[in-house]
Design a protein that fits this description.
0% helix, single chain, mainly beta, 49% strand, four-stranded antiparallel β-sheet, seven-stranded mixed β-sheet, 11 strands
Length: 125
């Protein structure tokens, strides 16, 4: 199985940058596609970004692609989400997820098999 632990969240001011990390463990982690999702209180979980097993293909929510970058370091079993020019509306609990299909960069929550517990990002105005 796969275990995911997010870190790097915190309280920042609008316009700041922040990088989230997702540490993964499990025999097949390097063969998983990975995704980031976020959920604000009272709202549905939404897709942020995804990356295939090799890191060669990525996918982003249209509204975030100019500010967020997903990457991975398979040697460290870690996936990153770099966020710049943060806005108050970026405030949410950010989750990483693993897709056992290594080739997909899916936007749907249903495509992901394992989830972390999330790391909170709060952006003040």
């Amino acid at each position: 199985q796969v275990q995911l632990v997010e870190s790097g969240g915190g309280l920042v001011q609008a316009g700041d940058s922040l990088t989230l990390s997702c540490a993964a463990s499990g025999r097949t982690v390097s063969r998983c596609a990975m995704g980031w999702f976020r959920q604000a209180p009272g709202k549905e979980r939404e897709f942020v970004a995804a990356i295939n097993f090799s890191g060669e293909k990525t996918n982003y929510a249209d509204s975030l692609k100019e500010r967020f970058t997903i990457s991975r370091d398979n040697a460290k079993n870690t996936v990153y989400l770099q966020m710049i020019r943060l806005k108050p509306e970026d405030t949410a609990l950010y989750y990483c997820a693993a897709d056992l299909n290594p080739f997909r960069t899916g936007r749907s929550e249903r495509q992901y098999d394992y989830w972390g517990q999330g790391t909170q990002v709060t952006v003040s105005s």
